[in-house]
Amino acid sequence: MSTKQDRPLLIAGAEYRSRLIIGSGKYKDFEKNLAALEASAAEMITVAIRRVNLGQDKDEPSLLDIISPEKYTILPNTAGCYTAEDAVRSCRMARELLDGHKLVKLEVLGDQKTLYPNVTETLAAAETLVAEGFDVMVYTSDDPLVARRLEEIGCVAVMPLGAPIGSGLGIRNPYNIRMILENAQVPIIVDAGVGTASDASIAMELGCHGVLMNTAIAEARNPVLMASAMRKAVEAGREAYLAGRMPRRLYASASSPVDGTFF
Amino acid sequence: MTIEITVNGKTKTLAAELSLEDLLQDLGMTKGRIAVELNGHIVPRSQFSSQRISNLDSIEIVQAIGGG
């Protein structure tokens, strides 16, 4: 690794070498998901909590049989919840399911078309979950004041969207992400919106502490190759951020000396 | 006397009251990671055998699946 001077990402007291978090939705099968996970070098992966299908073959492997909670940090989400109450219930179920695991991804959605976060319900759910001892990584809009409020409530990471979930539109408002970063004392992780590798690099170059993505990898023509690209993009963006970019200039600045010319 | 319960949104009629553990056994859910909510409250795994299932109980059984 060439990022020797970098510190690991710290979330709720745990250290992560990878700054990429991936999802487990939309994959053809668990094996493809695992191959992408390995190629991405991510150490944390999101899962959803859903009803067991009563008719299901009981010998059929489940996601957690393939993607081991011993090897990876499982981040249960509250996707599909539209109220604080449902989100809190989902987290309690997740904690029981994962033997007392406290880390959750809170997302409370506002409507089905945009999947935009419902901020008032998100704030209410965050208050309850923090009071109940959960370590809350929270998906939210890119509003700097809301991000700060979520941090004050005690969320362990604030995760503003770059663009709507599954849209692949990239980081639509880098200025807001910068404002969020300026105020933040907890990790800021762009969650949603990344479409391709350069989007992930842009998020990291802004100074984000990590990137969370699902569709960009799962819906790529070759998910495993895209997972590898995302690993490199996140690392490259992080190194570029740490290196400190040159200033932008309107006019040229010669790279070769102007003195000593013989013509 | 038969009892009527709801499991994951579906109504089921059972011959008699039973333990949650027996119900899960009957449903073929003895292995794999699940979590159970009874009438809106989590039932810890350690209480599956002592938890009685009675008439009109509503049970949710969940697992982890793929999601972003």
Give your account of this protein's structure:
The complex is a heterodimer of chains A (263) and B (68). By secondary structure, chain A is an alpha/beta fold. Chain A contains nine helices and ten strands. The longest helix of chain A is centred in the last third of the chain and has 21 residues, at 223-243. A five-stranded mixed beta sheet of chain B has the order 2-1-7-4-5, with no helix packed on it. The longest helix of chain B is centred in the middle third of the chain and has 7 residues, at 20-26.
Profile the largest sheet of chain B. Answer: 5 strands, mixed
β-strand number of chain A? 10
| Helix-strand category of chain A | alpha/beta
Terminal Cα span of chain B: 45 Å
Largest sheet of chain A: 5 strands, parallel
Determine the strand fraction of chain B and express it as a percent band: 35-45%
Taken from the alpha-carbon principal axes, the silhouette of chain A is globular
N- and C-termini, Cα separation of chain A: 45 Å
Q: Structural class of chain B, please?
A: mainly beta
Strand order of the largest sheet of chain A: 5-4-3-10-9
Q: In summary, what is this structure?
A:
With 263 residues, chain A is an alpha/beta fold. In chain A, 37% of the residues lie in helices and 16% in strands.
SSE inventory with pairings:
The complex is a heterodimer of chains A (263) and B (68).
Chain A: E1 9-11, E2 14-16, E3 20-22, H1 30-40, E4 44-51, H2 63-66, E5 73-76, H3 84-97, E6 103-106, H4 119-131, E7 135-140, H5 144-153, E8 157-160, H6 174-183, E9 189-191, H7 197-205, E10 210-213, H8 215-218, H9 223-243
Parallel strand pairs in A: 3-4, 3-10, 4-5, 6-7, 7-8, 9-10
Antiparallel strand pairs in A: 1-2
Helix pairs in contact in A: 1-9, 3-4, 4-5, 5-6, 7-9
Chain B: E1 3-7, E2 10-14, E3 18-19, H1 20-26, E4 35-38, E5 41-43, E6 52-53, E7 58-66
Parallel strand pairs in B: 1-7
Antiparallel strand pairs in B: 1-2, 3-6, 4-5, 4-7
Question: Any key phrases for this structure?
Answer:
heterodimer; A: 263 residues; alpha/beta; 5-stranded parallel β-sheet; 3-stranded parallel β-sheet; 10 strands; 37% helix; B: 68 residues; mainly beta; globular
